[in-house]
Amino acid sequence: MKTPQRLQTLVDEGLIDTVVRQLMSGKEAMVYVVRCGEETRCAKVYKEADKRSFRQAVDYTENRRVKNTREARAMAKGTKFGRQVTEAIWQSAEVDALYRLAAAGVRVPTPHNFLEGVLLMDLVTDANGDAAPRLNDVAFSSEDALLHHASLLREVMRMLCAGVVHGDLSEFNVLLAEDGPVIIDLPQAVDAAGNNHAKRMLLRDVENLRNFFGQYAPALLKTHYGDEIWQLYERGLLRPETELSGTFVRETGPVDLSNVLREVDDARAEEAARLLRMQTPRQ
Predict the structure, then answer these.
(1) From the candidates 17, 50, 59, 168, which is the catalytic residue?
(2) Cβ atoms within 10 Å, residue 5
(3) How many CA atoms lie within 13 A of 247 on its CB side?
(4) For residue range 25-77, what is the model confidence (pLDDT) as tens digits?
(5) Is 185 a catalytic residue?
(6) Rounded alpha-carbon distances, angstroms, from residue 91 to 19, 189, 194, 227
(7) Using CA atoms, how far apart are residues 167 and 189, in angstroms rounded to an integer?
(8) C-alpha–C-alpha distance, residues 157 and 244, integer Å
(9) Dihedral pair phi/psi, residue 141, rounded to 5°
(10) How far from 185 is each of 95, 135, 199, 272, CA to CA, in Å?
C-alpha cells in the first residue's frame, strides 16, 4: 500500500522498509502492519488530540511529570505549546509503560522504537501467523474462560508489582495470541503509588475482566479479586505468584457519597467507550 504520511519519516530513517496494510483504526490511533527487514511488526500512529474520541481525563494524567515549570504553566493555561506538551506526555506514557512492563515480564508487545508520534512494536499473532484477535472477537468454553481469566489476573498482579495500573483494561485491550493473552493499549496507564485514582482503576480493570469471562464461566461473577489484589498490594504482600481466593470481606463504615457518584460517572463513561469500541472497524 502507499506509505501514509505519518510513517514516511520512519521509512526515511530506515526503521520501516514497507507498509503492508492498515490493521485497525481505533479511538486514539491507527495501526499498520509493516515490514522491518525480515521481521513483520506493527506501527501505532497516534491521532492528534482533536481527531480522536478518547479524551485525556485528569484522573489519568495526575502526577505525570513534565521537564520544567514552563511546561507545567503552559499545560495549566492550555496554550498551544501546553497542548503539545500534554500530547507528548500522553503518547510517551504508553512507550514508558511498555518498556517498564516488558522488563518486568508482563505479556505486552515488545516495543522497538518511538519516533514522531509513531510507536513501532512487535505484531501479536495467532497460530496461523495472522494478527491476533481481540478477546471481544472470540467465543470461549467455560474451561478456556477460566484459564484465560486466571492468566490475565496474573498479568494484572505482575503489572501492579511493577507499579503500573492499566486503567482501561477490558476485552477490547487484550489480544489472544497463539500462546495466550497479550495486553495492549497503555497510554492511560497510571503509576500505582503516585496516582490517587489507581485503586479505583485497578478495581474497574479487574471487574471488566470478571464481567467478560463471566459470560462463559458464571462462577466468576461472584468473585472479588480486585479488592483482594489491592489489599495485598497496600500491605506489601502482593507477588506475581500470589495465590488468590477471590473472596473479600469489606470493612463497614460511613459511605463516601462523592466516591459513589464518581463510580456512577465512570460506569457511564465505560459503557459509552464500550459501545464506541464495538463500532470500531478492524481490517
Answers:
(1) 168
(2) 8
(3) 2
(4) 877 889 999 999 999 999 999 887 654 444 444 444 445 454 456 645 544 55
(5) yes
(6) 22, 11, 19, 30
(7) 5
(8) 10
(9) -80, 165
(10) 10, 14, 19, 18
Instruction: Using DSSP, state whether 136 is helix, strand or coil.
Output: helix
Give me the phi and psi of 49, to 5 degrees please: -55, -40
Taking only the tens place, the pLDDT of each residue in 107-162 is 999 999 999 889 999 999 999 999 999 999 999 999 999 999 999 999 999 999 99
110 alpha-carbon distance from chain centroid: 14
Whether 190 contacts 197, CB under 8 Å: yes
Instruction: Catalytic residue, from 185, 191, 227, 265: name it.
Output: 185
User: Residue 279, class by beta-carbon neighbours within 10 Å (0-12 exposed, 13-18 middle, 19+ buried)?
Assistant: exposed
b/e per residue 52-79 (b: at least 16 CB within 10 A): eebebeebbbeebebeeeebeebbeeee
Alpha carbons 175 and 153: distance in angstroms, whole number: 15
CA distance 275 to 269: 10
Cα-flanking dihedrals φ and ψ of residue 203, to 5°? -60, -40
CA distance 203 to 262: 13
Contacts of 24 (CB under 8 A, 6+ apart): 30, 31, 280, 281, 282, 283
User: Rounded to two decimals, what is the model's pTM?
Assistant: 0.79
Q: Provide the sign of the torsion angle of the four alpha carbons 272, 282, 175, 167, taken in this order.
A: negative
132 conformational bin, left if phi > 0, alpha if psi -120 to 50, beta if neither = beta
